[in-house]
Amino acid sequence: MDVKDKVYISLQECLNESEKIPTSQIADNLHLSRQIVTHYLNQLFDEGKVKKTDTRPTYWYIEKEEQNAPVEEELDSEVFDSMIGATGSHKKIVEMCKASVSYPPNGLPILIIGESGVGKSYIAKLIYKHALQTGSIDKKAPFVVLNCADYANNPELLSATLLGYKKGSFTGADSDKTGLLQEADGGYLFLDEVHRLSFENQEKLFVFMDTGKYRPLGDSKWRNSNVRFIFATTENPQEVLLETFRRRITLQITIPNITERPLQERIELIETFYKEEAEKIKKNLTISSGAVKMLCFSKFPGNIGRLRNLIQVSCAEAYFKHGKEDNLLISEAELIHAGGDIPVNTTGFQTERNMEISILWNQPEEYIHQEYYDEYHIEIIDLFHKIETASWSQIDQLYLNFRAILRKINPTHNNLTEQRFFTQICKDILIRYGVKMNDSCGKELYILYAIFNQMHIDKEQEWKLKAYFEQSCPKAFYVANRIIIELKKYELQLEDNLAFLFALAIHEYISESLELNGLIAAHGDTTASSIAKVVNQACGTFIMEGIDMPMDTTLNQTVEKVQNYLLHSAKGKGLILLVDTGSLSSMYSKIKNNLSGDLFIINNVSTAIALDVGLKMLGHGSFEQIVESTKKINSFDVQFFEGLSKNKNILISCMSGVV
Fold first, then answer.
1. How many domains are contained in the chain?
2. N or C end of the chain, less CB within 10 A?
3. Which of the listed residues 256, 287, 318 is the one where a domain comes to its end?
4. Is the pLDDT of residue 25 over 60?
5. pLDDT tens digit string along 395-434?
6. Residue 29's domain spans which residues?
């Protein structure tokens, strides 16, 4: 039972003695802070389970008809949690599968659509297990499977298989035979490749779905059976199923092929299958980065089924060659030998990420147990409530409190591949902003993601926290949001509220005392960001942001990016805008309303100019000092050197300084 349920039960118990009660009474009963109890009561209020007064202090109550209702226990979702993507790309699919099970009185028929090998049979079995788990069907209820393709050329035999038959009803019917509709009574009948059903058999089936009655071949008596249906097809239902039959199938879900799945889910699938093989052969495995990329970005027929087969054969190849060794390497060579000519999508290989996977077959997975989640969530929410009312001088103590919470969390996780992937992306972003991230910082960011990603914060609290962080540590908060934006590009599922925790984790590495903001806008795919990265790394902290402008980018698009930066960046005494062409310097009129101070625009930006400006910003130089310094170096020296040979000479042009 989680904390929210405990708060609800405590409210019910207290209301037995009173009509309405204050927050403090529940807090005292549960030995929790008033802020934490208020947080969960507001959640219950949003869900419509409790009511509150508009008075101060607030009093809470439950409508009479709801007061004696039991707390609704959440269904054990362990079955679907085992499915990769259950909270990601398959989240909506899982919800519809559960709905097909729970809808009264006997659930709803469901059609699973998808290419061969995407996992239709796997999901059908999960639906059945979920029905068992939730008590929707009896513990001994059957799960009967029929592949209609096996009878595609003999619809009469398929009809007999479904309905059963009486002895002598046709040649070869030497005895009575029970049909699958009877065998599946009380449970599930899964009809795979349902598009191979003849129209006549589709008609017989929808009559049974309407009435629950069927008649075996050669029998004059109607029989009853209570069957739940799961159908699967690789075809477009509109083209292969009768409209009258389709109307009986209430729910339809489409399973994406493996290349449409998020990258992280593809990596999880690969790691899961290699773990299975490591257990079989009792060997540690290292799957090279190139092999992982080949499996992630290649499109081959068969989807997940083919992926599993390739992985199994690649392990067999490595075992055959080096079976006496404790550690086996799976490289591209093993995969190519296993899969023949795997068609490779070379575009996906452009990433420079190290995607190597290491698997220790005899190392048990460790998890942070759910009971600790609630404790950590409570402490963080309590910390957030303190932050809302804290003064700037108190931020250091709150930061120490945050560190104390992190130290209590056991830094062990069940997905080391995801952790390495996550940490590498964070490191790349932080380096861009001049942060020299150590190993502990990377682990902390992943722990925050692993444990607090789903933590609920109400809108009012989110607004207050955002206002506070934008004032107290705006640069750290800005970088934290950049991390989340970048991680989402790699299809990781992150909540925006993590930015508050990320900002707390990295704020000690970023100077918040700068009075001026620096921004570079330059043409080219990476020109501005590269110069900004050099400046930030040289200064050892976040000094400048870079806005890249590919050649097809319009001025209005650039202005929009600048305005977005001004909206989310630290508010200081002014902005130094470095641009590479005169046309960009004309944007003042478009951005002036977004400025919180003075604006200094430097044209013809170079690395030398940007670095000089950045160092003076770091040294808290004034606008006037930076203007004068920039004037001195922002001039061209042109020198001609007469060549000693008769070949073409070289004209050198450079900013003032040493060549």
1. 5
2. C
3. 256
4. yes
5. 667 777 887 787 777 655 456 667 777 888 888 889 899 8
6. 3-67
- Of the candidates 262, 292, 255, the one whose C-alpha atom is nearest the C-alpha of residue 489 is 262
Omega prior to 105 cis, within 30 of 0: yes
| φ, ψ for residue 362, nearest 5 deg | -105, 15
Specify the CATH number for the domain of residue 345: 1.10.8.60
The mean-pLDDT minimum among 38-42, 89-93, 293-297, 638-642 falls in 638-642
Residue position matching structure tokens 């929790």: 32
The answer to the question of residue 404 being in a domain is: yes
pLDDT score of 630: 75
Amino acid (one-letter) located at 343: P
Distance of CA 410 to the CA centre of its chain: 22
Determine, yes or no, domain membership for 432.
yes
**SS (HEC) of 610-639:** HHHHHHHHHCCCCHHHHHHHHHHHCCEEEE
Provide Rg for the chain, Cα atoms.
32
Residue 95 shares a structural domain with residue 214: yes
Residues 6+ apart with CB under 8 A from 294: 332, 335, 342, 344
**pLDDT reported for residue 115:** 93
* In a shared domain, residues 101 and 55: no
Residues 14 and 43 in one domain: yes
Per-chain mean pLDDT for the chain:
80
- The closest of 127, 71, 70 to 99, measured between CA atoms, is 127
- Angle of CA points 38, 455, 470, to nearest 5°: 85
Instruction: Collapse the DSSP code of 112 into the 3-class scheme (helix H, G, I; strand E, B; otherwise coil) and give the result.
Output: strand
Are residues 99 and 238 both part of a single domain? yes
What residues contact 360, with CB distance under 8 A and at least 6 apart? 278, 284
Is residue 115 domain-shared with residue 245, that is, in the same domain? yes
Question: Is the preceding peptide bond at 301 cis, omega within 30 degrees of 0?
Answer: no
| pTM > 0.85 | no
Q: Do 482 and 503 touch, CB atoms closer than 8 A?
A: no
Helices (H), 164-198: 180-183
Asked whether the predicted pLDDT for residue 70 surpasses 60, the reply is: no
Domain boundary among 477, 509, 541: 509
- CA 314 – CA 331 distance, rounded (Å): 9
State the Cα–Cα distance between residues 357 and 292, nearest whole angstrom: 8
How would you classify the pairing of strands 516-523 and 574-579? parallel
- Is 464 a domain residue? yes
